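Sample entry (317 residues):
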Amino acid sequence: LLQLEHVLRAMDIFTIDGSKFMIRLGISLLEKCRNIKYEDVNDAASWWSKVRSITHSPNFVFDDVLKRAYGFRGISKLPRQLNKRIPQRKDIDRMIHSNQKHVRKDVEDSNAAIVPTFPPIEYINGDIPSELVKPTLIRSKLAEWLPLALKSSVLELIFSTGEHGRSLEQFYSHCEKSKQTILLLEVLQTGATIGMYASDPWHVDGQVYGDGTCFLFRAMPDPVCFKWKGGGGSGPSATNADVELAIEELALVENFMTGKSSYISMGINREGGSGLRLNEDLTKGMSSYTVSFDNDPLAGENVTEFDVGLVEVYRLL
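Predicted structure, serialized as tokens:
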């Protein structure tokens, strides 16, 4: 939304002043955007596009925004018309209530009964158009499911089959340097949007990798998340057979991420199936129950193999 140099300055101030600065900055930016004609705004994307056109304009002065954010306290020789009070608590509450109503309206009709309970995670509109994270419900659920330290992250699209083609080679080349990513894909048979959160960079490796923060999910319809099941001990009175079974179980439970030249997958079961697996040209997918995540097939009931539509990968900033 802001130019990089302005983001860095804002983060410096946030480190010192905390969250109250973000409220002040947001209100000040809204004041800068007061001339936007609301009849020209059709959706959230068009609104943020107009805001970005202002913040990236050559006439945009970030110092003016900061001065307005703090109400010019302690500064003399300032234009009187700019010396306006900082909104009170009741003003902020009214704005929050208004935004919540807008979020509810943005939920797709097929999920109208589901109201987002978490503020939706934001995403960057870059040169490559983002598609699968546009629904507010999906981004709200991702914010709910992500580890606590990542709930305030921003999504940046780094791979799309619509832009980079359908090959694992391209997939790895765009994802191998990003530690925490979210993969989303379309299931053509059911229209579902499913995916997985990866804690480590995707890369070709002879061993499994990742950790217990990985998870599988169905974003639409009927959002559901399957976190790592975790391992258990065999107990002090366990027999040799129990120990062998426990070792086998542990190997299955700790099968997080697998990256091969011919497929990627997450999770595994005793029959060799995966929680989510994509083939080398990202056109075919499989999803089955796994010991690792104790999940249902993500694509739908009794749908364990499916054709894949758009695939997108986002890194967390």
